[in-house]
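Hey, sorry to bother you again with one of my protein questions. I've been puzzling over a protein and I'd love to understand its fold better. Take your time with it, there's no hurry, and the full record follows here:
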Amino acid sequence: MEMKIKKVFVAGAISPEFIANTIAELQTKTQTGAHNIFLGQVRADEIEGKTVSAIEYTAYESMANQKFHEIREATFEKFEIASMHMYHSLGTVAVGEICLFVLVSSPHRAVVFEALQFVVEAIKKEVPVFGKELFEDNSYQWKVNT
């Protein structure tokens, strides 16, 4: 079954209200027994004596959306999940704010843990999203994913 490419990018930080509303919508899925959520948050890393104040995310959107789509398809193929949501920030996200929100749902709990780890690792490794770490002194450097 070919799935349409879903919109993944959100302007700025992903709000707690957006996350809560996404979770609330799951109550209609009465055959689902488990949900697992990953929230990626911007850290106030200290690098060479300077503290990160925000990350500015950019992406090759068409290529990134295609990669997200491939990860989504691979996850549905590999795991018995009922639904999946992926959202990533574009633009500036301050420390403490959410920049990545992934949610997987399944009839049973064991699969959601494995599926979620698979998805998050694939996103980090494969999706062309770039983060410019902005420091409190207004300097910046490009972030390296670890």
Q: What stands out?
A: The chain has a mean pLDDT of 93. The radius of gyration is 16 Å. The first helix runs from residue 16 to 25. The chain has one domain: 9-142.
